[in-house]
Amino acid sequence: MVAAGLLFFTFFAVALARPTTHDGFHVYERRADVPKGFAYRGQASPDATLNLRIALAQSNPAGLEAALYDVSTPGSSNYRKHLSKAQVEAFVSPKPESLQAVNSWLAKNNVSAARISPAGDWMSVQIPVATANAMLNTQFAEYVHEKTNTSFVRTMAYSVPETVLGHIAAIHPTTSFVEPRSSAAEVQAFHHPRSRTSVKKTKASKTSSTSQPSLPTAVADVDDSCKSQITPACLQAIYSMPSAPASSNRTNLFVATFAQESASQSDLQAFLGKFRKGSQPARVILGSLDGGTTSFTSSATTEASLDLQYTVGLATNVPTEVISVGANNTDGIAGFLDLVNALLAQDELPQVLTTSFGFNANDIPATIGSNLCNAYAQLGARGTTVLFASGDGGVSGVQATQDCTTFIPSFPSTCPFVTSVGGTTSFGPEVAVSFSSGGFSNLFARPQYQDSAVNAYLKTLGKTNAGLFNASGRAFPDIAAQAQNFQVFVNGQVKPVAGTSAASPTVASLVALLNDAIQKDGGAPVGFLNPFLYSAGASALNDITQGNNPGCGTNGFSAVNGWDPITGLGTPDFAKLLAALKKQ
């Protein structure tokens, strides 16, 4: 079996330092050592050009969050009355005094900046190393990634003058080291990663449950072949999804791919011919950013093939846009910032965004993680449902490892303004798949909408895994779907594919069809889902109560009645979710 998995990028984190003053400068970020896999090569040439991003302090991020919840919470008088582009930008545009302080600092150093976000909260500069050294009271150096022999110019610490302290949120990339990827992640055979891995024997978790979960549909309604091969028909039966094409002409779906992933038109046609006979795909648009793939190719990759075939195959007649984000970016986070800023610049946003790529959260600088999460809040406030695959490493992050002493959450799944999708397998009963990533954030506090569900889980958990995770952090995933045995055409051959990267486009397609049904009746798209899921929508989900997600030498967490850090609140039932939404 092929594991599409959650494709990931490796970062090496830097802590935000407590500001210290030195000759009018304040140390803003610093790191203690060069990360493993990188080597110091010497001081950077003073004439080398640096491409730096400067994030300015936003004027009212708390107001944006309040507005997001106001339009996303059932019972609010503004539920699903999403904000306009101008209304959102008013919350995040820098204050005039911040613009003046930063522009004066740049002008003093003869530096010109380009605005790169629609609200003006991000700007870019291209400056010689000598100028950057002087402006940031530092010494940039050249480092090499030993495996790929790729060179980087970075610093171990930088400072900002007192005049801009409080007006700048981040300067990036400066102290972060990212392992380069010039092509798609290698596809590996999937053999249940932990079947050959010994885990530390622990006392049976009090969260183990032998109760049977509620079933999404009568077992007789699901073909028995779906236990070994997942197809669109299987997902439609398991989750009560309609097979009829969308007809509102108002819904759409957006798929983000990274790492030079590409899909084949002939593979899509073969997939539809075999698994969705008689259906015709709606318009499929291919977009490119940062040098990504600009057209269908004859040589396809697994992840892009999976995403395209299961969104087009499930969300029949829903216009789908696939954007390929390439390696030609300087945002220091694999193009994620470039993509979200490109989306926010659009007058009309996609109603659903699904992404099957991510990072280990501990490797993301706090300033960048917070800023990117805030950008997803902007999308949600304008009506976009933002979905991310939770990861394929159980409690050990985006990919399986036993080389960890505490549990590793993933990102962006731990952002409280996105919906994180975990994985399940089988049916009658449906159970948690062992690789489904889940846990608790070390950066983001638990949002209020999760308090009741997560506190109930923590009470059941007791002291199991104590000290291995941050119990007060944002908990993930929020929801789950099938993540194993997906039948995908790749270069003319059908391959079985596994990973939460299969679950996220499944849920995205279901949400697109919900939007279609609601908008046919004159309603608004569902937007940011989580406040609904954790309240009125919880009863419309199929609770998963069996399975666990081992990693880091432990058995991980266990699925239980109610929310758990493997499958979230459970798997969707289209008919029940639609009925619950129509009551709001």
User: Helical content, roughly?
Assistant: 10-25%
For the biggest sheet, the summary is: 8 strands, mixed
- pLDDT < 50 stretches: 10-22, 181-218
- Strand segment count: 32
Q: Please report the distance between the alpha carbons of the first and last residues.
A: 42 Å
Q: Which value, in Å, is the CA radius of gyration?
A: 23 Å
Which band does the percent of strand residues land in? Answer: 15-25%
Number of helices: 13
| Oligomeric nature of the chains | single chain
* Structural classification: alpha/beta
Mean pLDDT: 88
Describe the global form.
Answer: globular
Report on this model:
The structure is a single chain. The protein is α/β, with parallel strands linked by helices. Helices cover 24% and strands 23% of the residues. It has 13 helices and 32 strands. Strands 17, 18, 19, 20, 22, 24, 25 and 28 form an eight-stranded mixed β-sheet that branches. A four-stranded mixed β-sheet has the order 16-1-30-29. Strands 4, 5, 6 and 13 form a four-stranded antiparallel β-sheet that branches. It is globular. The two termini are 42 Å apart.
Topology of this protein?
Blueprint: E1 2-3, E2 7-9, E3 11-12, E4 15-16, E5 21-22, E6 25-30, E7 38-43, E8 49-56, H1 61-72, H2 85-92, H3 96-108, E9 114-115, E10 122-128, H4 129-135, E11 141-145, E12 150-154, E13 157-161, E14 168-172, E15 177-178, E16 188-189, H5 232-238, E17 253-257, H6 265-275, E18 284-289, H7 302-314, E19 320-325, H8 336-344, E20 352-355, E21 357-360, H9 366-381, E22 385-389, E23 410-411, E24 419-425, E25 431-432, E26 439-445, H10 451-461, E27 473-476, E28 479-482, E29 486-490, E30 493-498, H11 500-520, H12 530-533, E31 541-542, E32 571-572, H13 574-582
Parallel strand pairs: 1-30, 2-21, 17-19, 17-20, 18-19, 20-22, 22-24, 24-28
Antiparallel strand pairs: 1-16, 3-15, 4-6, 5-6, 6-13, 7-11, 8-10, 8-14, 9-10, 11-12, 21-23, 24-25, 26-27, 29-30, 31-32
Helix pairs in contact: 1-9, 6-7, 7-11, 8-9, 11-13
